[in-house]
Amino acid sequence: MAMSTRERIVAESLRLFADRGYTATSVAEIEAAAGLSPGAGGLYRHFRSKEEVLASAIREHIDRTRKQINDVLDQAAVYEERPLETRLRMTCQTGLAKMREEQDLIRVLFRDLDQFPSLVAEMREGIVNPLYEGIATWLSAQPEFEGADEDWPAIAAILGGAVVNYWLANESMYEPPTRIDEKRFVESWARLGLGLVHLQRNSAPEPTTTAP
């Protein structure tokens, strides 16, 4: 399905902001990239300013992220028959894929969004926190963890933070930490998550017995 002019403006502006920076990207360059006559004011038929284009890009990503999280949680029961380690690997791979999907937005965040604290807050509340909350909800819903008295939000922050850090290190330094490839990272991440099961078993109270 062909993109509308508005959609092209948003997509091309985010790509340019990520590549060149928000300040260094002109309205005319966005218009040219979106297939409009540069400098003719076509962007202003859809947006009041360049900042509004950036805000729209962020909000579209927020809407997509919310839908993705809901879809993943809705489909969780479909995979319950697979081993927990497999489910954990799939979750880690999904997180890394999400980071790749949002790479332009992440570049803009680290490069330019300090100019726009309200947009940072929208990203934090609309994308970042819901992703961590989604991980916590998913973990707590796994049958193997049923009844576990765990601080799932904190565990999600650790496991989710590992995914974010791995991707950011790979992105900013052009190779993963200590050259651990993605397959090894995903497998180790899953084994750490799997260790929660053993912790639960080890911390379970001993069954009480009565003297004969």
Describe the structure.
With 212 residues, this protein is mainly α. It has a domain at 58-202: Tetracycline Repressor, domain 2 (Orthogonal Bundle). The chain is built from 8 helices and no strands. Helix 1 packs across helix 5 (103-112). The longest helix is centred in the N-terminal third of the chain and has 25 residues, at 50-74. The mean pLDDT is 88.
- Ends: how far apart? 76 Å
Oligomer: single chain
Question: In percent, how much strand structure appears in the residues?
Answer: under 5%
What is the name of the CATH class of the domain at 58-202? Mainly Alpha
Number of strands: 0
Q: What structural category arises from helix and sheet content?
A: mainly alpha
* Gyration radius from CA atoms, angstroms: 22 Å
**Which sheet architecture does the biggest sheet show?**
none
* Helicity range: 55-70%
Query: In one word, what is the shape?
Result: elongated
Return the string of H and E elements: HHHHHHHH
Question: What's the mean pLDDT score?
Answer: 88
- Looking at the structure, the CATH topology of the domain at 58-202 is Tetracycline Repressor, domain 2
Could you say what the CATH architecture of the domain at 58-202 is? Orthogonal Bundle
Supply the number of helical segments. Answer: 8
Topology, please?
Elements: H1 5-20, H2 27-33, H3 50-74, H4 84-101, H5 103-112, H6 117-141, H7 152-173, H8 182-203
Helix pairs in contact: 1-2, 1-3, 1-5, 3-6, 4-7, 4-8, 6-7
